[in-house]
Amino acid sequence: MALFKRRTAGKPGEWYYCLKHQKVEEGPECPAQDRFGPYGSPEEAAHAMETARERNLEWENDPKWHDKGDRGQAP
After folding, report:
1. CB 25 within 8 A of CB 31
2. pLDDT per residue over 17-62, tens digit each?
3. How far is CA 8 from CA 15, 27, 42, in A?
């Protein structure tokens, strides 16, 4: 039995998308490693996976991240 219970970061009024349970949660329900957020509203949290996909596409298409062998040279 643990002497000290580890608290999850977050507080009521902050919304998260839990990757483990695949649902929107308010406040510190699940550990930070299992969630995206915080978001300002439950609607924003509900779209967390869509937002992540959009950001990943932007990153994959960003020419600054694809140097094509020009290592060590300034852009």
Report:
1. no
2. 999 999 999 987 889 899 999 999 999 999 999 999 999 999 998 8
3. 13, 9, 19
Quote the CA–CA distance of 63 and 40 in Å, as a whole number: 31
**Which residues lie below 8 Å from residue 30, measured CB to CB, with a gap of 6+?**
8, 16, 18, 20, 21
**Tokens found for residue 7:** 């608290």
- pTM to 2 decimal places: 0.67
Task: Give residue 10's identity as a one-letter amino acid code.
Answer: G
Distance CA(17)–CA(24), nearest Å, equals 5
Token digits for 34? 């299992």
